[in-house]
Amino acid sequence: MTKEHNRDIEREERLKVYELGFHFVPTLSEDDVTVKFSELKSFVEKLGGEFISEDAPKPIGLAYEISKTLKGQKKWYKNAYFGWIKFTLLPEDVAVFEKEVKSLENGWSIHSR
Fold first, then answer.
1. Which strands sit side by side in the sheet containing 73-89, from one edge to the other?
2. What is the pLDDT of residues 82-96, one digit of tens each?
3. Which residues contact 89 (CB under 8 A, 6 or more apart)?
C-alpha cells in the first residue's frame, strides 16, 4: 500500500459522527433560509467532512417561545424554521466548525449534540 492510501485509511478511522440541529427565525425569507442552510453545509465540506443525512429547514410551531437578540433587540418567537444535518468530521476540526457556525449565527439558534 502507498503512504497516501495509508493516510486515507488513518483519516477515515479518526472521523467521528456529529449532528447539528438548528432553528432559523421565522422572519427570514425562504430564499434566505436556503442560503443559510447551504452556507452551513459548505462549512462541513470545507473542513473535509462528509454528509450522512440531513433535513432541510421547515417551518414549525415551537413547544415554547424562544428569544433571539437581533440588532440589539430581544424578540420572542413561537415559530421557527427547524433543520438538522448529520455528518462526519475530524475531532480537531470541530472547534473550527463551531467558530464558523457562530460567525453566521445572526438570525438563527444552534443546538448541537
1. 50-70, 73-89, 16-24, 108-112
2. 999 999 999 999 999
3. 15, 16, 18, 44, 47, 48, 49, 97
